[in-house]
Amino acid sequence: MRLFSQDKIFLSTEDFFALHEGIAQSSDDPGIGLKLGNEERVERYDPVKLAAISARSFEDAVERVSRYKQLTCPEAIRVVQRGNESAIQFVWLLAHEKEPALLVDVCFAWIVSMAQRGIGRPISPKRVEFQRASVHREIYEAHFDCQVRFKAKQNALVFSKADMELPFVTHNADLLATVAPQLEAELRKQIAQKTFSEQVKGILKQLIAGQRPGIQDLARELHLSTRTLQRRLTDEGTTFQSLLDDARRELARHYLLHSTRELNETAYLLGYEDANSFFRAFHNWEGTSPGQWRLLQRTSHPRKERVGVA
Predict the structure, then answer these.
(1) How far apart are the C-alpha atoms of 224 and 240, rounded to whole Å?
(2) Beta strands 147-149; 127-129: pairing state
């Protein structure tokens, strides 16, 4: 059985966001996103979810979802270590605007639901962080059974590192040995259609999201040794740093041209420690500041507003 042989339905990130906005507007239930994310769907119809629930641990499950998500959508799932905490973040790489609040609710609720099902008992995050203004706090705190912070820098689901290491009672080595190779084969098939440098740049764009990836991180994603990775980059006449700069530059242009994100947020998404570092890098690339470049591009190439039905 081939898991990816059926016809595919393609949807832009913009339309995907619009779908969730439509659901939120048509529902009178402020907790509809939590309910959608908490729905127990049958994983056998979704090979990525099947691999996740069959994983060894909560952490392994999130890593597998993050790796295999690139087969279906331009979404990066990052686990950012903060001392004894692990913050799970969802980053939409081709988003023109910020992701809808309902979509954040769905993603966060699904992660918690998957963790509880895999671990076999209730488990709660240490806290939930939302960028949005405070609204329906009691609903979120009741659902996640933890503190909820609003107006945070990033949307994040924060667990203790100890909880992330908890084993899954649903771990199924035989099933995982069947599903994972098919997912890996499909991943290799997609990657093989690109040059090695393009492959590297695509992976770096996912690793960059809010982080500063090193060559070891890249080698791990490619399942190569650092030495082999360096040799292959040298054979193509490039370097890790050059491709990292190219990936950041392409993402920067995309964010500035297609989104209304604040410049500080763009700097964070590109893995810079502060906005000034991003401004200096961007000036070296384009010869002007990010704000001026965005203004010039939008003046020269105004975006057409989407016409919707009220």
Answers:
(1) 14
(2) parallel
